[in-house]
Specification:
Layout (H helix, E strand, L loop, with lengths): L2 H6 L8 H12 L2 H13 L6 H26 L3 H8 L4 H31 L4 H6 L3 H13 L16 H18 L3 H27 L4 H10 L5 H4 L2 H14 L5 H6 L8 H32 L16 H13 L4 H32 L3 H4 L2 H15 L8 H30 L2 H8 L1 H23 L6 H30 L4 H20 L8 H23 L12 H23 L1 H5 L4 H10 L5 H6 L1
Length: 620
């Protein structure tokens, strides 16, 4: 084993597979499982939402999770080094995903801070704020008093002050996260036994108590008992929302699992681990929906003046968990204890996800030349300090507006990064070998046919200039694909003749050659990646994510989201543009990121790829 690889073996490691699983599930499960998933299911046709959700889970979420874990496990480094291992010009993909995680950390930790503030505030005026209140009133209290929005100018929503109680909670949350990650993955894994294990116990306590209440069945029926299938074609954004929910919920495209995978043994069962993490996360979301809507059903049943419809007492998003649900819990015997236990439950879910997000970019920074100058603990402390300073905008009285805008624009970033990851794995990895074997003509023509036909289809589907856009879109996609493939087939015949190969061999190299090499490379002795995974990574996921991105852009809210003033839209747009900039710097100037990596990381990756040095990789 080379010196570089020997150094790679000294990387931070998990104490056991169980601790890795608990930490990974904890990183995946967060606020979105409790408020975003149940709200989306209720909003998008009840049980009908599970159709796009489960398709997104198995077709996109789990395969992408396998890719990220396998890359981290094989290359023993974070996102920048791991994606650079596939191709020097893909390091920007890793940087973009880490930039995405940092953007989310900046508003996610303040969200945890608001939860901490709400917990402490529940010890005073509980009856007024919750027990004798409606869900709408409780949510108004949370917005005005907990977040501090009562001082905002409603004309502009520009911030006017820092809410110092929230700032104190922000510092406390960063201190807790730093204390849990600063001592390595072994310590983080031990902490995760509690921070993930206890919320699971609490979830089932909430579920059992909720299902025993009068009216619980009506709430559960509103959550999943109604299947409004019209939503799937009348509200086409449901497909993009399902995919972004999977990305948010599992935590793919943030660099979390590449970082976590780098601490696993090289022969760890990556496929089995991915299924355990993803299915555990979805199961938690599913059960949380029952616990939430069963209590809401009871609130509707016991409404003043008699039972009312679920729609009259429920709310979406944060209004659900910081307004309606605490009010519903407060009506139970010992209601104040149930509400405080719920805030503890939310805090633990959030802090676990905070561990993963924080670790994703500190691992990458530690793998750069900064890791030679500073200890990992110093880097983590520095990142926490930056997070606190930049997070100040989220603990002003306009903090929720900043969060809402950035959170919405991050949906675009997630889909972009997801597309970059699978496009890099399925099409850019090994492209030089393909070109040297069969020529550039078939390779480039096949790529343009695959994605050009999808783009043409998207123009018809989402352009808004035709009535029967779905039918015309599919027709345009099929026609353009057939024409393109005709040209590809002719070029393949020329390549077969020129290289003295059978046409079938040329087609196999073109269609699956490179991604099968990637599959073989990332497989371990006890975990062979399935053939269908390789096919999915190259031929299914990239066009689907491209369509989802176009679908989201066609929603009509780009740069006008929420009716907020320009300053807020600019911040959200910058998140998207910076992501693109990170990616294209890697594409057109790969040496920029290559010069940032530690020499030992570069040498280790090069040796795993069978290359002598980094220069050969860049020249390729």
């Amino acid at each position: 084993m080379s010196e570089a690889l020997a150094k790679g073996e000294t990387r931070d490691q998990w104490g056991s597979r169980a601790s890795f699983i608990f930490a990974s599930v904890g990183a995946a499960v967060g606020f979105g499982n409790v408020w975003r998933f149940p709200s989306l299911a209720y909003e998008y046709g009840g049980g009908a939402f599970f159709i796009p959700y489960l398709l997104a889970l198995f077709v996109i979420g789990i395969p992408l999770l396998i890719l990220e874990l396998a890359l981290g496990q094989y290359y023993r480094t974070g996102d920048m080094g791991a994606f650079g291992g596939m191709h020097a010009r893909l390091r920007g993909v890793g940087v973009a995903s880490v930039g995405c995680s940092f953007a989310v950390v900046l508003y996610y930790i303040p969200l945890i801070a608001w939860t901490v503030h709400a917990f402490f505030a529940s010890f005073k005026d509980f009856d007024t704020n919750y027990q004798s209140s409606t869900g709408g009133d409780a949510y108004t209290y949370w917005m005005n008093d907990i977040i501090g929005m009562s001082t905002l100018d409603v004309a502009t929503y520009y911030p006017t002050r820092v809410v110092w109680s929230n700032f104190g909670c922000l510092v406390l949350c960063y201190a807790i996260i730093f204390g849990c990650v600063a001592f390595g993955m072994k310590t983080t894994g031990r902490v995760a036994y509690f921070t993930m294990g206890f919320p699971i116990l609490l979830l089932f306590i909430f579920l059992i108590r909720a299902c025993s209440l009068e009216g619980a069945g009506d709430g559960i029926k509103a959550y999943i008992g109604i299947w409004d299938m019209k939503v799937l074609y009348e509200r086409r954004d449901v497909w993009s929302r399902a995919v972004s929910q999977i990305f948010f919920s599992i935590g793919v495209t943030f660099g979390i699992f590449t970082a976590f995978g780098s601490g696993c043994p090289k022969d760890a069962p990556v496929v089995a681990n991915s299924f355990i993490i993803a299915l555990s996360n979805s199961f938690f979301s599913f059960i949380a929906g029952f616990a939430i809507y069963a209590v809401i059903g009871n609130l509707a049943f016991n409404a003043e003046g008699g039972p009312v419809a679920i729609a009259d007492v429920t709310a979406a998003g944060p209004g659900l968990v910081f307004g309606t649900y605490p009010v519903a819990l407060s009506q139970l015997a010992g209601g104040q204890h149930w509400v405080r236990l719920f805030f503890i439950f939310l805090f633990l879910l959030g802090i676990d996800s905070g561990f993963g997000l924080f670790e994703s970019f500190t691992v990458v920074i530690n793998d750069t030349i900064l890791g030679d100058k500073f200890s990992k603990r110093t880097i983590q402390a520095g990142c926490a300090g930056i997070g606190i300073l930049v997070g100040l905008i989220f603990v002003t009285d306009a903090g929720f507006i900043w969060l809402d805008v950035v959170d919405w624009y991050v949906n675009f970033v997630l889909l972009l990064v997801g597309f970059f990851e699978v496009f890099g794995a399925g099409w850019i990895f090994g492209i030089e070998d393909q070109i040297s074997e069969i020529g550039s003509g078939p390779v480039l023509a096949y790529m343009f046919t695959e994605f050009g036909s999808v783009i043409i289809g998207c123009i018809f589907w989402f352009g808004g200039f035709l009535d029967n856009s779905v039918g015309w879109g599919f027709l345009a996609l099929i026609v353009s694909y057939i024409i393109g493939m005709g040209a590809v087939l002719k070029l393949c015949k020329v390549a077969a003749t020129a290289n003295d190969k059978m046409l079938n061999d040329v087609l196999q190299t073109l269609v699956m050659g490179n991604v099968m090499v990637l599959r073989e490379r990332l497989s371990t002795n006890i975990s062979t990646l399935p053939w269908i995974w390789a096919f999915n990574i190259k031929h299914v996921m990239p066009p689907l994510l491209l369509i989802c991105f176009a679908n989201l852009c066609a929603g009509g809210s780009f740069f006008t989201y929420g009716g907020y003033v320009t300053a807020y839209q600019v911040l959200g747009l910058l998140c998207v543009l910076v992501t693109l900039a990170f990616f294209f710097i890697g594409v057109f100037a790969p040496q920029v990121y290559a010069n940032l990596l530690k020499l030992e990381i570069t040498e280790s990756v090069d040796e795993l790829n069978g290359k002598k040095n980094q220069n050969e990789e860049v020249e390729a």
